[in-house]
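Example (one chain per record):
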Amino acid sequence: MSSHIHNGTSRREFLGASALGASTCLYSWASSVTAAESSDEPAITRIGLIADVHKDVMHDADERLTVFVEKMLQWKPDFVVQMGDFCIPIVENEPFIRIWNRLTCPRHHVLGNHDMDGDGKARPDEVYAFSREETMEYWGMQARYYSFDHRGAHYVILDGNDEGPGQEGYFKYVADDQAQWLAKDLAATRLPTFVFIHQSLEREKGGVENQQAIRGIMEQAVDASGASKVVACFSGHHHRDYVRQMNGIIYPQINSMSYHWLGGDNLQIRYSEEIDQQYPYIKYTVPYKDPLYALVTIDRQRGSLQIEGVRSEFVGPSPWEQGASKADLDGKSLLPSISDWRIPFG
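Predicted structure:
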């Protein structure tokens, strides 16, 4: 299985069955590709992806986003997706939004759990200072979840921030109304499908709590030949770098643009006292020197998914030097990078 998944020019260990206990079987995409090839639309789609910029944590978030926007203006993708934990809806973040709005291609947002955080002023006694609707209006996002077709493929944006039974703190759930919509949406399309959500649907710790049910909806969406309609489900949130495969669906985890959250008591001021006073949460992180982002190329005719990422380095001591455990569930994915992957189908 792992021999079919390539990381750049070198073969890397696939963080699938051995590291995460996943079922890793490739499936045939031939029927979906054949249907798509009959279209007059170009077979190649290019997508720019970022996750977890955390404008409200990072002092240099504007500069990081600018690097991505300038790359996209040069690369000219079909569309871009930011996958959550972008910024809260306050007037101080308007310059940041203006940088994003420089993009000339279609722009899609995914809601993250920190996009409704407080600024220390509004509703400080609540986990969420803002509603999802306030953040959506600020971003210019018309719906929490929706789908669209482009160049012979189907794309789904999901919201993993619904309130689940007995949940406290940040919500991590896909409620019944959204789940029913997803099932109907997948049943209605004949096209190969790509899903985007903030919290993972395959990672138990910190992922969507009813992820098994949502994965089941995606796994049951098959065409007449029994091939899965859902090719891949992209997520952010976990600030890790890996690709996992479960029951015929690829799950790329897109690393944070900015940092790994370390937390705990081993704090480190990595920039300056002035920056730390203005952005007090940076010392709980291990930042990446360079902004991370991914260039995704979908080739319908060949049946391949390619992810081109950015490699960087940690600013200051690494997580391992500050006591992070390499015995973690997937410690090898705690990297200052988004790796390159080429994933063929069929």
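Caption: The first helix runs from residue 17 to 20.
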